[in-house]
Structures are given as C-alpha cells and as structure tokens.
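User: For a benchmark we're assembling, each entry needs the component sequences followed by a predicted structure for the full assembly. Here are entry 17's components. Please fill in the structure.
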Amino acid sequence: MEKNIKILSAEPASAKPSTPPSRLKITEALKVLLRDKDFNSITTAEISRMAHVNEALIYRYFIDKRGLLHAVLSDYLQEFVANLTFDLKGIHGAINKIQKFVWASIHYYDDDRVFSKIQLLEVRNFPGYFDSETYQMVRKYAGLLMEIIEEGIESGDIRNDIAPSSIRQLILGAIEHCCLPAIIFDHKIDNDAMADNLCEILFHGITRKI
Amino acid sequence: MEKNIKILSAEPASAKPSTPPSRLKITEALKVLLRDKDFNSITTAEISRMAHVNEALIYRYFIDKRGLLHAVLSDYLQEFVANLTFDLKGIHGAINKIQKFVWASIHYYDDDRVFSKIQLLEVRNFPGYFDSETYQMVRKYAGLLMEIIEEGIESGDIRNDIAPSSIRQLILGAIEHCCLPAIIFDHKIDNDAMADNLCEILFHGITRKI
Amino acid sequence: MEKNIKILSAEPASAKPSTPPSRLKITEALKVLLRDKDFNSITTAEISRMAHVNEALIYRYFIDKRGLLHAVLSDYLQEFVANLTFDLKGIHGAINKIQKFVWASIHYYDDDRVFSKIQLLEVRNFPGYFDSETYQMVRKYAGLLMEIIEEGIESGDIRNDIAPSSIRQLILGAIEHCCLPAIIFDHKIDNDAMADNLCEILFHGITRKI
Amino acid sequence: MEKNIKILSAEPASAKPSTPPSRLKITEALKVLLRDKDFNSITTAEISRMAHVNEALIYRYFIDKRGLLHAVLSDYLQEFVANLTFDLKGIHGAINKIQKFVWASIHYYDDDRVFSKIQLLEVRNFPGYFDSETYQMVRKYAGLLMEIIEEGIESGDIRNDIAPSSIRQLILGAIEHCCLPAIIFDHKIDNDAMADNLCEILFHGITRKI
DNA sequence: CATGAATGAGCATTCATTCAT
DNA sequence: TATGAATGAATGCTCATTCAT
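Assistant: Structure for entry 17:
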C-alpha cells in the first residue's frame, strides 16, 4: 500500500522529520492494537504502554482518543486516495476506469485489514463523523468515482437516466458489502473474482444497452 | 410494579419453577437494550434499571455480565434449532433439505436482528467462547446440516470427494456472509432471492455432475 | 442553627434512618473540608478519605461533585428557611419583621461560616445555578421577605413608590454586603450593631415619611 | 511575531537589560487572564498561549506558577506604593494624610480590579505568603501608614492610648472591608463617599477628644 | 429471593513542571 | 534565550462485581 506513494512524495533526505517520532509511535501502537481489539476496548493506557510513550503525550498530539483514531484513519485514507488516483492514470474509458476502481478498492481493503475495520466498522457510529475533516477524505475518494461516472455518462458509456450520485452510492455500497464479511471473519479475498463478479453485475445494470 | 402478575399467572402449584420472573425480566431487558447498543456499552446498571430489578440480582442468576449474554444467546439458539428441526420435517431429499435449511437460516437471521448481532458480532471475540456451553447449541445447529450432507453423500446427491465438514463450513459461511452486511447496515433482506442465489451457486459446486 | 428545626421536625424515634449513614459521612466530610479550602481545590479523593468512604460512593448518592455541594447547600438552606420562618412567627408589623429578618439572616450567616461561603462565594459562578433546584430554596428565602414588604406596603408602613422587588433586592444585597468581609477575612460579626445600622439606613430610605 | 519590535526599540546598548520582553509578555498575559478567571483555573498552557511564548519559558523567569502570580502582584504593589508615596507628598498633618491615604487606597483598589482580586482574594490562602518577598511590599505599604500614625500621635492629633499597630490594622481592615464587596460583586465604587464615611467613623474613634 | 450499600480497579483526560537541545 | 518533547501525579467519574442482611 505504500509502494506508489513513496515515489510520489518528494521529501528530500535533508528535510526535518515532520512527524515527531513519538507521534508515530502512538499511531503505530494503535494500529497494532486494532488488529486484535475493537477501538472502544482499547485503553489509552494500553496505547501508551505499547508505544513506550507517556500516556499524556497522546493528548499533546491528538485532541482526543477519538481524534487519534481519526488521525490514523486519515493517514490511511490519504494513502488510499493517492494510490487510487495513481492507479487510475493512463486508463481510458469510464468502464475500464470503474473496473480498475473496483479492483483497487477491494485490493486496498484486503491489503490492510486494520484500515478496513476502522473505515467500515469503527467510525460510522461516531457522532459528528460525517462532519469531520476525516470524512472529507472519504468524499474525495467518492469524488474520484463520481468524475468517472460523469465522464461515462458524457461519453455515452453509462446510461443517463439514473442520477450519477445513485450510481456512485450503488458501487461504493457494493464494494463495502463484498469486503465486509471477509474483514469480519478474517477470510482471504479473491480480489480478481470479487471484482469481476461485482463489475459483471454492475455493468449489466448501468451500461446503456443499444 | 409487576408483583401482581404472579397472581394472574396460572402456573399450577405442582409445576417446576421454570424460569423465575426476575430472571426473565433481566434477559428481556438485555434483549431490548441490544437493539440499540452494542453489548460492551450496555451497563449492568442500565440492564437492572430497564428490568425493574436490583442490580445484584443479575449475579444471582448469571455468573457474569457475559454469562447473561450467553444465556440470552442460548435461549435464542434453542428456539432457532427447535424451529429449524421442525421446519425440516417432512422434506425429502438432501438437496431440498439444504434449500430449506438455507432459506430458514436466513429467515431467522433476518427476523431477529438482536439475535443475529449477538451471534455474528458480539460473542466471537469472547475468550473461551468456543469452549462454552452456548457454543454447543451452535454445534447442534451445525450438526443438523451435517446430517443432511451425510444423507446426501450416501444417496449420491452430493459429491463424495469433498470432506463433509468442509461442505458444512462452506454453507454456514455462505449464509453468514450473505446476512452480515444487511445486519450491520440494517438493510432489508430479500429472503427468497438470497436463498436461491446462494443455493444456485452452491449446488453447481457441490452437486455431482453426471 | 439546629435548635428550632428539631422541634419542628416530627420524625418519630422509630422511623427509618432516611439518610444512609455514608451519605451523611460524605456531606459532613465536605463541610469540614470547606472550612479550610475552597470547593474547587477539594478533590473527591480527599472527600472520600475524610469520610472514610469509597470514592465511588459519592456518585451513588450525588450525581456529581457539584451535585454534592448543592446537596450540602440545600440542607443548610432548608434549615435556614425553616428557622427564619419560625423566628418571624408572632412578630407584628412589617418594620419589626424586617428588623428580625435582617438580624436573623446576619445571625445565621455568622453562625455557620461554611454555609455562608458556599452561598456567597462558591455557587454563584456555577453555570446553571440560577436554574437549579437549590436556587429554588433561595427564592423561597427571598419570598419570605417579599411577603413582608408587600404587607408593609399594604399597611402603609413602606412607601409604595418603589417596586417591592427592588426593595427586596436592596435589603438582601445589603445583608450580603455586610456579611461578606467578615466571612472572607474570618472576622467576628457584631450582630446587633450590624443589624441596627443596616436597618437604620434602610428605614430612612424606604419608610414613608408623613 | 513580535521579533521586529527589538529593532524598533531604541534601548541604548549600554543600558541594563531591564525586563526581558518575554518576561513582560508572560506577566501581561496573566493579568489579562485574571480579569475573567481566578488564578487556580488558569493553566500555564493558557498563559503561554496568550503570551505567544513557550510554556517552559515561564519556568526560566519564575520558579513557579505561584511565583509568577507573586511577581505580577509585586509589580502592582511597587506601583501602588510608589504612587501612594507620591500622593502623600506636600500634605500636612496626620489627619489630612490619613484621609488622603484612605482615599487613594480605595482609588487604586477601584482602579485595577485584577490587582485587587489578587491582593484581597488570591494570595491570602497561599501557604508561606506572609513570609514571601512579595509580602514585604505590603509591609512597606503598611509602613507608610504606620509613619503617619506615629506622626499623629507625636503631634497629639491621634490618641496615644491605643497601640499604633492596632490603629493601622483597623484602618487597613476597614479599607479592605469596604472595597471587597464591590470587587466581588463587580460594583462601582463611590470613591469620595466611601472615603468620607470611613474617615468620619474612623476619626471619631481614634482622634483625641478634648 | 431480593436488595441497598459498598468497593477496587480502571477510565479518559489535565496539568504543572522538567529536560535536552 | 528559547523551545518541543516528555512525564508523574492527579482529577472527576464509571463500572462490574461483592456482601451483609
């Protein structure tokens, strides 16, 4: 998941560390703990212990325990969106792009289960999540898809009698729907098969039949 | 508050005490609360308040807060298995029975979301769950299916080159897999369609092709 | 301060203890601590330690640390109002009654410095204090004076060209004004002199001159 | 942010460093904050934020958060005493001087409420306050009055059968006593009236009657 | 059976203060 | 002189659980 971004990030070797090491230790500690427990049953004491960092330091870098989770999610999402944007480069035609979008989304969900758990299970019931800055990253992700759909409608590849936003929701919902059980039951995902099936069904619904 | 109910209940003096009314009040209270919150964020105080029962009484009837959840789940499972057993009566042929099994399982998951949530989300991460008495009920449920599969293999309806236990896991996994997103995202389930699709895929995989 | 109320309270010797002993221990502990420190710098740990009671028990009897203070104040106020009501019995004429009201108010402020500190210094900056149930007791106290003023206006002893509420505020303000320095600097109060001076000034302002 | 100010300030190279600008920023910040909150509920973080200064810098210039308050109070007191000393110049006779002393004291209390709050409310309960260096300034202030009283006794204007220290305490107490309610309840002070009344009472008590 | 009282361990969070640079 | 990082000790408060009656 970090392959592309490294190439893109142009931080010179001499640059200042930007994120203080302890801040990093904290986020990493939370990521590790999230592998086994859900966020609510992870305590700040546990996080600080695992990070080998003073508990109070969490509150210097993050406003909140919840703020810490948002920060972790935000990091993930940034990478997620950056990678996806990169992956879509050079692909022509809305249909091909959607295929790629679906495949890549499933791939990234599959690749980092902690990210997926946060994104699909933890943050949703947070009050005010949908107003949060973090959610803006999700909207950016959704925006990527939206552009493709609009391109597809303009080019005539996608039928124009369904609201683009409905199509977008359908696709995003389908992706989540497919990945969720694997994430909860900790199954492997057959990325190719899942993407193919999903798109197969999708395109017979949304492509314009002549 | 509910004291007088005793007078009204026509339980004969000779009958076994069955479940004491307070025990029932507690389990019912938990069920109600589980509709809106996840188990960890429900407090014993809350449960006792909703049950109109003293908090300490929970510990007379259940060893634990967790034990209470297990008891609730156990009740559900008992009914679940009893119903399923009944539903399968009079159906002939392994394939038909599996079809019924799948349809009914989905139906019961769909019907009682609280039960489904406990079963599919809450108890799994409990340490020692799989050694628990409650889990024995789940094994009974799985056993029902196992018998059908073995019957199918014997009759030649089901291929014999796959271990029956693998087939059982496949089927149970598929059912959960299909129901879970609906439970989490609180969607409706199209029982017929879901059961049909699932079986369609299933049978082309596991039935013997001549 | 407890002399009159004992006579008034009709609790039979056989009655149930009404307030649990631990609840009492907690309120008493806070009263003791308030003698030397201001409320904000008293910790719940300190209170429980002094009360020989578990810290969590505070929260069984009071919703809040602040709630505990309100309860203490409320107790005081109840007594305060009851005593004052009793003291005014059998006194005739608004002027005499006011004289008594002033004298007694100063007396009770003087008598229990902890009460006075809470009442005059602590609770005022609490957000929502003036909507609190406790404040209703204060209004009752103010109401006592209001009745006297209205009686005085009706009888012609008090001039009717000033709003009764203004007169009430003036008197209450003057009493507090006079008591406060003694409370803060922990001086003694010359009850008679203070009451006389205050009333002297007061009556030349508010009595009707023929 | 304020770096350039150094260039503009025309302090000659030879001059003593006077107060470093950051030290000043800190004390000023505290003064501002004290306008709205009491000292205990002001945090060092808040002070440094308001001062646009690093939090740790507080501890370079002051041993303590409390030390900072003392420093602020000390500054005030220095000015207070200096002004008072100046105000008393050219006034003849102990009685006139006391009148001026009282009027001016009230005036300065009225003029700067922050100073008054610190002086009359905050520092008193500090352990060790009365041994502190800051308290020496207060003694200097009291000393000014003491000199006047002794002058009055010598000249026969003030009765000599009361210990001068008692007279001093009486006067200082009376001033504080009068100013305090206005400071707490944030009333205006009628400087002339208050000084006149206070002196009227004072002189009929302490002046020698022939 | 039922309950009011009690509690230890833990929770997220705050704060004054220190330290290395 | 200045600062970012770090921290120990609290703080108010909650909760599952126990116990005497």
